[in-house]
Structure formats: C-alpha cells, structure tokens
Amino acid sequence: MTFRLGLTGSIGMGKSTTAAMFADEGCPVWDADAAVHRLYSQGGAAVALMERAFPDVVREGVVCREALKQIIRRDPGALHKIEAIVHPLVAQDRQVFIDAQTAPITVLDIPLLFETGAERYLDATVVVSTTPEEQQARVMARGTMDAGQLKAIIQKQLPDAEKRTRADYVIETDSLDHARSQVRDVLGYIKRTRLHA
C-alpha cells in the first residue's frame, strides 16, 4: 500500500509549487481543489445534489462557484450544507486515487487538511511555510485580491504557527532550491524510516 503524505499550507505559502516538486520526484499527487472542480463540472457527482439543495447554483450543467459564494454571504449556515454534500464526494475521489497508486509515496494536496480533520486518514503531514511578509507579497503579486480580502482568508484558515506545530514535516519555501532540497529530505527520511522494506 502506498504511503499517504498530506501536503498543506496557507494561501501564498507555495503549496502548488511544492506539490509540483513532489511530482518531479516521482510522487503521484492528488489535488483537493482539482477534485472539487471535477465534481462541479458537467457530469460531476456533485451537480445533481447541489441543484437539489440550491436550485440557483447550477448553470448549463455546471455548479457556479460565484453563485455559491453569494449564497454563503447571504446565509453563513449554507456552508455546512455545501460541505455535507461535497466533503464525502471529495473523500471518495481521494480514496479512489489512493487505491489506484503503486508508487511508494503518494502526496495528497489538501488546503484545509487540519481544518477538515483529514490527517486521520494520512500516514504523515507536511506543511509549507514562509514569512507573513513573503506570503502577502506573493498573493498581492497575483493581482486577484486586495490586502483586506487576503486578511479575511487568513483569518478563516488555521494559523500558520499551529499548522507547523501539528505537521510531521515543515518545508520553508524561502527559495525554490531550498524548498526542493527539503522535499528530497522529507522523501528520503520517509523512505528510510517509514516504508516497510
């Protein structure tokens, strides 16, 4: 059975870049956000269920994320209903992916890993981290949100310090070379100490 390594980190910490580094080292990578995208797309398993719960959110056979955001803004309680539909489907998608793997280590990219309790299903967790200044600079450079929106997102996520405490491994994403060497160190350590010979 493949070793399940959960990867997480707050917005702007370099999680996607680090996930690509794990893939470069030969690890299959499952992406929770991509799974939700599949579930919301035409023919996705969440479409009919979401339409039943929120008739206005499905447009041309696709769940409209903007419409969902508006519903949540109007009714914060709607988020629990959405999660009750989506989380079991995401877990199912994740399990199908894991079951199909033959590689020694599989990486599961889960933005809200600790927030959703997903660590219960994993063999180890790694968090990516950088300074608050670097985090803000990266997100602002994307040009998709302002400082107020970023602050609101950060406040909804588990604090970086707590993620670092709870994770088995921490990867500092202060530079690409340093991050890549830490990815290799983590994989080497797991192979030496956690994989059955």
TrEMBL record:
Source taxon at top rank: Bacteria
Subcellular location: Cytoplasm
EC number: 2.7.1.24
Transmembrane regions: none
UniProt-listed GO biological process terms: coenzyme A biosynthetic process
Catalytic activity: 3'-dephospho-CoA + ATP = ADP + CoA + H(+)
InterPro entries, sorted: Depp_CoAkinase, P-loop_NTPase
Main subcellular location: cytoplasm
PROSITE patterns in the cross-refs: DPCK
EC supergroup of this enzyme: transferase
Job of this protein: Catalyzes the phosphorylation of the 3'-hydroxyl group of dephosphocoenzyme A to form coenzyme A.
Similarity annotation: Belongs to the CoaE family.
Protein's UniProt name: Dephospho-CoA kinase
Upper taxonomic lineage: Bacteria, Pseudomonadati, Pseudomonadota, Alphaproteobacteria, Rhodobacterales
